[in-house]
Specification:
Length: about 190
C-alpha cells in the first residue's frame, strides 16, 4: 500500500507514528477544484494553505495596467496560498487559481497553530517548510536581479520539472518576466 503524499513530505523532516499522522490529517479538509476555478480572489481573506495532492495551481497578480505576474506554480506535493494574507489574516493581494482539476488538503491558520501547539514535531515541520520557502523566494529574487533570461529559464526547468508540458507558454513567459518571443528563442535552443 502506498504511503499518503502528505505523510511522505512530513517524514522528510520529522517521523510520525500512524496515530500521529491520523491526528495531523484530521486537521485538514480535502477540497477538490475544477480547472480555471479561482480558490482565492484578490481582496478576499486567505482562509487556507493548500497542499496540492493532484493537479496544478498558480499564484498571480494583475497590475494596474492589466499585466499578469505569476509568482508561483503549485504542483503535486507543493504548498500554495497568499502567505502574507494567510498568516496575517488580512485581505489577499494575490489570486490563487487552478490550471488543472486539482485535489488539495487544506489547512486553516487556526488548525495549523493548534497542530503546532499539540505536536512539537509539526511545529518543527512547519518551521522548516517556511524556512525553505523563504530561501526559495530569496533565490528567485536574486535570480531575477542577477541572471539573464536563459538562466531563469533553466532554473524554472529544474524547479518545476514537467511544467512546460502542463501550461501555456504565455504563463511560463509571465513567470520568467520575459516576452513570448524571448521564451520561444529559449525553447528553440533546447530543441
Amino acid at each position: 500500500m502506498s504511503q499518503h503524499p502528505l505523510r511522505i513530505q512530513i517524514e522528510e523532516i520529522v517521523t510520525l507514528s500512524d496515530a500521529e499522522f491520523d491526528r495531523v490529517l484530521a486537521h485538514f479538509q480535502e477540497k477538490t477544484f475544477k480547472k480555471h476555478q479561482i480558490v482565492l480572489h484578490q481582496g478576499d481573506y486567505a482562509s487556507f494553505d493548500f497542499f496540492v495532492v493532484k493537479g496544478l495551481m498558480r499564484v498571480s497578480r494583475v497590475d494596474p495596467d492589466g499585466k499578469e505576474h505569476i509568482l508561483q506554480f503549485g504542483m503535486e506535493n507543493w504548498w500554495i496560498t497568499d502567505a502574507e494574507a494567510f498568516h496575517r489574516q488580512t485581505k489577499s493581494t494575490l489570486t490563487v487559481d487552478c490550471l488543472e482539476d486539482t485535489k488539495t488538503l487544506s489547512l486553516t491558520l487556526e488548525n495549523k497553530e493548534k497542530l503546532s501547539k499539540e505536536m512539537p514535531k509539526m511545529q518543527t515541520f512547519f518551521l522548516k517548510k517556511t524556512t525553505n520557502g523563504y530561501i526559495a523566494l530569496q533565490k528567485r529574487i536574486l535570480c531575477f536581479l542577477s541572471s539573464n533570461a536563459n538562466d531563469r529559464y533553466h532554473n524554472l526547468l529544474s524547479l518545476y520539472p514537467g511544467l512546460m508540458q502542463r501550461v501555456p507558454k504565455a504563463m511560463i513567459a509571465s513567470y520568467l518576466g520575459v516576452t513570448r518571443e524571448t521564451l520561444s528563442r529559449l525553447t528553440k535552443v533546447e530543441s
